[in-house]
Design a protein that fits this description.
Strand 5 and strand 6 form a beta hairpin. The chain is α/β, with parallel strands linked by helices. It is built from eleven helices and seven strands.
């Protein structure tokens, strides 16, 4: 039974009870007909106003159900409406290959949102943005643990996303978020090529370690991962050659497994000389 129906039944019950009491009181205390009528009309008006309030509340809920964007801010409503307008316009041009691909990605958004609502894992197509959302959500005193295969200078210096990612790391470290990053290297040459990045991050207060891939093959079945045990959330990259495709997870068992792997890898990792000194 809906709340509106329940309230209507309550009002109807008390309305009938009040009418009967009014008739009884008029007869018992010898109220005039006009007084009895005025009292009954007053209650009828109050009942009408109550019904009107219930109807308006019910209508508002139905409107929000039909048009959920009304619960968004003005800027968000504009963005959503513009997106839907573009989507409808592009559907009429479905013969263009690039349009077909874009429409598939739009459909994928619905799947991602449903997975997020259920707490299920889902695929996201930007390792930088996913990691930045996770890192940016942390408060001072919380910890961000990363096993990273971003072992080239351009991963941190080239492009807006890379620069924004670097700046967020520095800012969160200054704000008191504990960031531990283990770089997984293929060769010693990668270590020398990454020296500038390691130095910058260490000076910003980020705890940096490095390890060579061949020594942790049994410990790292993924290309890289970033986790927050505080938020029970993680971002996992499965293939080294596909940085733009990651799994976002809130699975507590998986987060615990990743945290254990991180600690085991950290135990056999090296501390850069600039940081150890």
């Amino acid at each position: 039974m809906s709340r509106a129906l329940f309230l209507r039944l309550i009002i109807a019950f008390f309305g009938l009870l009040f009418i009967l009491l009014t008739i009884w009181a008029g007869s018992h205390y010898h109220f005039g007909y006009s007084i009895t009528l005025v009292v009954m009309l007053a209650f009828a008006m109050a009942t009408f106003l109550a019904e009107l309030i219930i109807a308006i509340d019910s209508l508002e809920k139905r409107i929000k159900l039909l048009y959920p964007s009304l619960e968004l801010s003005t800027a968000e409503q504009i963005s959503v409406n513009e997106t839907l307008t573009i989507y409808n316009r592009l559907k009429k041009q479905h013969s263009v290959v690039s349009t077909k691909i874009a429409l598939l990605e739009f459909d994928n958004i619905h799947t991602i949102l449903k997975c997020a609502e259920r707490g299920s894992d889902y695929i996201f197509h930007d390792i930088y943005l996913a990691s930045m959302v996770l890192l940016g959500s942390l408060e001072p005193g919380q910890t961000f643990k990363v096993v990273s295969n971003l072992t080239k200078r351009f991963y941190w210096k080239t492009g807006k996303h890379a620069s924004d990612h670097s700046e967020l790391n520095f800012r969160q470290a200054r704000n008191g978020v504990t960031i531990e990053r283990i770089f997984v290297l293929n060769t010693k040459n990668e270590l020398s090529g990454l020296a500038e990045i390691i130095e910058e991050q260490a000076q910003a207060g980020i705890h940096i370690y490095y390890v060579f891939k061949d020594s942790i093959e049994n410990l790292l079945p993924y290309a890289s991962f970033a986790i927050s045990e505080n938020l029970s959330s993680g971002v996992v990259s499965h293939r080294e050659d596909i940085l733009g495709k990651v799994t976002v997870t809130t699975n507590s068992e998986w987060i615990t497994d990743l945290a254990t792997r991180f600690d085991e890898i950290k135990a056999i990792s090296n501390v850069p000389s600039s940081q150890s000194s």
